[in-house]
Amino acid sequence: MINNKAKYSNFIKAEAKRLGFLSCGISKAGFLEEEAPRLEKWLNNNMNGQMQYMENHFDKRLDPTKLVEDSKSVISLLLNYYPAEEQNSNSFKISKYAYGADYHFVIKDKLKSLLHVIQDEIGEVHGRAFVDSAPVLDKAWAAKSGLGWIGKHSNLLTQQVGSFYFIAELIIDLDLEYDSVTTDHCGTCTACIDACPTQAITEPYVVDGSKCISYFTIELKENIPTEFKGKMDNWMFGCDVCQDVCPWNRFSKPHNEPLFNPHPDLLEMTRKDWEEVTQETFSKVFQKSAVKRTKFSGLKRNIDFLKT
Questions:
Q1: How far apart (Å, rounded) are the C-alpha atoms in residues 62 and 35?
Q2: Distance, CA of 61 to CA of 57 (rounded, Å)
Q3: Active-site residue list
Q4: What confidence tens digit (pLDDT) does each residue in 6-63 have?
Q5: Which domains does the chain have, with CATH numbers?
Q6: pTM
Q7: Was 189 annotated as part of a binding site?
Q8: Using CA atoms, how far apart are residues 33 and 190, in angstroms rounded to an integer?
Q9: Is residue 192 a known part of a binding site?
Q10: How far apart are CA 102 and CA 166, in angstroms?
Q11: Which residue in 298, 168, 142, 164 sits closest to 242, CA to CA?
């Protein structure tokens, strides 16, 4: 049986690579003991702001066996989104992950393909695919699966490729060979803490979500608090500051997923273009992008806040 576990695990990792994933790690499905008190404290301190959904399904968030019946393994996968080119420097900025097609759809398709290949090769395996859309602690599982460590900015980091990648999971009812955790390589570096425009990283490894630029520009439905005027660093959707300054991201390499390539107009648009943006341009440039989540009215609100 041990040989089968190793054989199946190697097969799954090889298939993940074939489908374009950056890396794949596997861990035993079970209760996340270390994460439970951290998550509870974070929620008790209201660091989720108006993201009420973070309070839902607390038990499922910490235990995948409550999400997927009889689950035995969490397969964590990384998919690179680092772009070959960035926006015009004289522009309001959007987070690099939203340059191209909405990652939820791109990754979900790859995960379904992986699950089908597993079923074809191994037999009756049941499971579910997750892409940032269910109560799964992606970063905790990726770290547990040896894919990297959680940095002081609370993102997953790897020595080889930094942090510009999406994290997704397949949770399945098959016993596999499990990977071991890697060590933390942040050392004494505080680049992300020092650079955060809104001081959202309140202490190493703790981000107050209610002060994060990504929260203001995407999640917050009301007006952005006036106390953050002049502190948004020209970000109109998301924010990459803590990743941009991280020394490990010197090793980021451009992705090779055509669906993540931006609409050509996006890279050329200037501040003036954004200030005059119309619903028509918004729909054209962000036709398949995650930016649609904030809607035209939300993006306009963000741009107006940056202008004044």
A1: 7
A2: 6
A3: 132
A4: 999 999 999 999 999 999 999 999 999 988 888 888 888 888 887 777 777 788 888 9
A5: 2-172 (3.40.109), 191-246+263-307 (no CATH)
A6: 0.94
A7: yes
A8: 27
A9: yes
A10: 11
A11: 164
